[in-house]
Amino acid sequence: MDVQERRSGKIYSLASTNNVPEWLSERSRRNLAKRDSQFRRRITLLQDLEMPVASTKVRQSPDGRFLIVGGTYSPRIRCYELSEMSMKFERYLDSEVVDLLILGSDYGKLAILGSDRTVMFHAPYGNHEKIRLPTFGRAMAYEKSTCDLLVVSSGKRVSPRNVAAGQQAMGEVYRFNLDEGRFSQPYSFPSALRTKRYQEQDLAMNAQVLQLGGACIAVSPTHSLAAIGAEDGTVRLWDNRAPTNSLSPFLNLDVASATSGYGYFDEMANSGFPGEVTSVCFDSSGLHMCAGTKGGNVALFDMRSSKPLFVKEHQYGLPIHTVQFHSGSGTVLSSDPKLVKIWNAKGSAKGSTEDGWDGALDTDVSESEGLGGATGSIVANVEGTADFSHFIACGDESDSSGGNNGLLLCAGEQSKVQSFYCPVLGSAPKWCSFLDNITEELEERDGALDKTADESAVDQTVYEDYKFLTRSEIDSLSISNLVGTPLLRGYMHGFFIHVGLYNRIRSVAKPFEYNEYRTQKIKERIDEKRASRIAPKAASQKVKAKVNLELADRLHTKAGNKTKSGKVAKSLVEDDRFGGLFSNPDFEIDEEAEDFKLRNPSGIAAKRVNNDRDMDSDQEDDEVGFDPLEREISSQDTIEDEYQQSDSDEDGFEGGRVRGEEYEMATSNSVTEKMDKKENSTKK
């Protein structure tokens, strides 16, 4: 996950890691995670949220539960279930996806505009029906009040020769009624004369052609107004509530004239008309509209005025392919192939109208005013790793439009669908609420690091060119005469002196300091070598206890064992947190206390047994006495008893303890006594 720093906040790129091949084994993935920290810290927003080559359109279902992505190659669509965070199904198509609409509340009804002049309708079980258009379609919109599917076409081209003959080219918007299952009479509007340069048979020729094709369409969510942006730089509006015989637009809005003189369109590098309207959208109230042009300009209009409230310039001068209002933050999101620009649509309280909109057309706005600034001020710029082709603000079941969320999903010219989390726009959707926790932890960690860096920077840079000296150090350098001069700045209990002056004074006052320093370093290296020859025995870490001596002895005795209790005793002895137990008299254990005896009955009983044994041994000493004659007699009796315990030489342990004449005499006496007993028994 990469982080893009902006003045208004941070933008988190969630799909910044490289793609991992599907055939890579699990073991190889684990090894890659060990080697690559970026791969190890990646965030998988949705499983398999990618296309083999590129993605063209992204849509979210009105119930907020599903995400539909169209891409290539081969042409296909993929459906993702957000609650499961994984792909639900994949369907292959006959042609590339130009536009994609979700007609129902979920993925059950889909309309797909193909590049082969077809519109495909999909049901939950797959492809349901396909219709063919007279000309190539460029964009689609669904009008719920009339159940009409509106398709903007590329328009028919007519040469001036046919115009001279009386033929007139007309732009058309095809209407397909989904309730009746047939085409209705299309919306038509007059054409405009443009110059097109083309090359044919290696000859450059200029030909006058009459053409007028639509490029984009939007239907207001509040009222039934349909806005179609055309190649001539005009937005035409139809009221679908009007009678069917009203097929001509009731209003023409000249966007090309309103944006002329703005932008960075390069006519030498790019072909086409810079005022061509390439994207259009309404806000949730239906009172404001945005129109993006091919020259990289976005015009913000109040529907009650033909004059734009503001014209926003994209410095790249590339066509604006998507424009969207973000109701939660009061911003407009406009995108060209290079970036998504987030800028304020509602002005600040100062200088704004009663509706909250700045009525003056002003393009000289600070680029760093942030959220809630003047109209047109930049909030953030979202930059990707590949060109964008479409984007949406992703929401959840409570807000499928994404007006209160900060997650952006961008289709583009790479296999992965690029995803960005912008906390400045709002919180994360409920199905990926973990993003809030991750970003909060990162901000806390970065804040702690920044605080530490700032403190260290103050310590290192504030007085980097000065040296602090105490009074004793000044006396040792013999510069007491400088006290009171600008060379010594008094500060607290000492003085500050410039480092350069300090080094010169020190070299004069202590000329042999370097030699002493060199001798000291040589001595330290010699000591290190000597220490490495003979490894000193590790010193005992036995705690010198001042209190609780018996407890300390027992813990040290147990610490030598490898049992569980030994490990616990070792941790108690080595942990500094328990050091006060053996040094602080407040923690001394009173073994005579009644509470201690109740809690340690086994220890008290063992102590009593030891005391009884000591008393018995003392009594035995008193009975035996200290007479040397008695000691000698008792020792002789002990020897005789040992002799009697050994009946024969076969006893290798007890008899083998005594050798010599005494042993032989004792053995012979025992044998004689046995023989006498046998003779007496025989006589009887």
Characteristics of this structure?
single chain; 684 residues; alpha+beta; 5-stranded antiparallel sheet; 4-stranded antiparallel sheet; 34 strands; 27% helix
Structure overview:
With about 675 residues, the protein is an alpha+beta fold. The protein has 14 helices and 34 strands. Strand 1 (about 1-5) and strand 2 form a beta hairpin. The longest helix is centred in the middle third of the chain and has 28 residues, at about 435-460. The protein starts with a strand and ends with a helix. Residues about 195-210, about 350-370, about 455-460, about 625-635 and about 640-660 have low confidence and may be disordered.
Structure at a glance:
Helices cover 27% and strands 30% of the residues. It is of the alpha+beta class and 684 residues long.
User: Kindly, what is the distance between the CA atoms of the first and last residues, rounded to a whole number of angstroms?
Assistant: 112 Å
User: Would you tell me the overall average pLDDT?
Assistant: 77
| Residue runs with pLDDT of under 50 for 5 or more positions | 193-209, 349-369, 455-462, 623-636, 642-660
Q: What general outline do the C-alpha atoms trace? A: elongated
Number of strands: 34
How do the strands line up in the largest sheet?
1-2-31-30-29
Largest sheet: 5 strands, antiparallel
Strand content: 25-35%
SSE class: alpha+beta
| Proportion in helices | 25-40%
Per DSSP, the total helix count is 14
Rounded to an integer in angstroms, the radius of gyration calculated over CA atoms is 47 Å
